Amino acid sequence: MTNSITVKWGKRHFKIEFDDYEQQLEDTTVGDLKQRCHRLTGINTTEISLSAYGAVMNNDKLPLGAYSIRPGSKVIMKVHKKPSDTLPDPIAPISSNEAATLAKLQAIQTRLSSQLIPDINAYEERVKAFGVQSGDEKAKKKLLEHGIYLGEQLMQILFQLDGVMIEPGFETARQARKNGVKTAQTLLDRLDGIKGSTKNFV
């Protein structure tokens, strides 16, 4: 008979080994088992709830035998988090297909951060500099045209993000695309504000 029990947490299964399990059974308490679970998962013992055979193991001082735990038994672990706790639930590993999708999104994000954001920053400085000068209409027109060009580039980014297909279950990729869209939309709003300020130029 195996000297171990299995702890199931979400989709994860942990095998916990015991030396001379039968002899230790009467000395191993629910609290001891929670400590073992804590070392494996990093979850605070006060937030761990264990159950077996339909019974909640709610007395940390009782031995495992009181809940009919024997070698080969399966114990269910649940986590009761505090509202402020940010520890994530178990997350399935990213598949190679999702990794490929993330690579596409990263390429778009790289263009956004390394090219368009610096261009918009530079454009904003040009607009500010133009505002304190007696600029002519021709220069003002060129400034507006460049703002329109930057807006078109941001729209292109949004179209590219929209064109990346996110398969069901690709939650990391879905969040990455959502973040990219939010960044591009924020930049569009900022760009509109910069272009709008040129209307006050004489």
TrEMBL record:
Keywords in alphabetical order: Chaperone
Entries under InterPro entries matching the protein: BAG_chaperone_regulator, BAG_dom_sf, BAG_domain, Ubiquitin-like_dom, Ubiquitin-like_domsf
Pfam entry (one): BAG
Repeat listed as a keyword: no
Record-level Gene Ontology MF annotations: adenyl-nucleotide exchange factor activity; protein-folding chaperone binding
Record's keyword annotation contains Phosphoprotein: no
Top-level taxon in the UniProt lineage: Eukaryota
Example of a GO biological process term: protein stabilization
Residue ranges of domain BAG in the record: 149-195
SMART domains reported in the protein's UniProt record: BAG (SM00264)
GO terms for cellular component: cytosol; membrane; nucleus
Annotated protein name in UniProt: BAG domain-containing protein
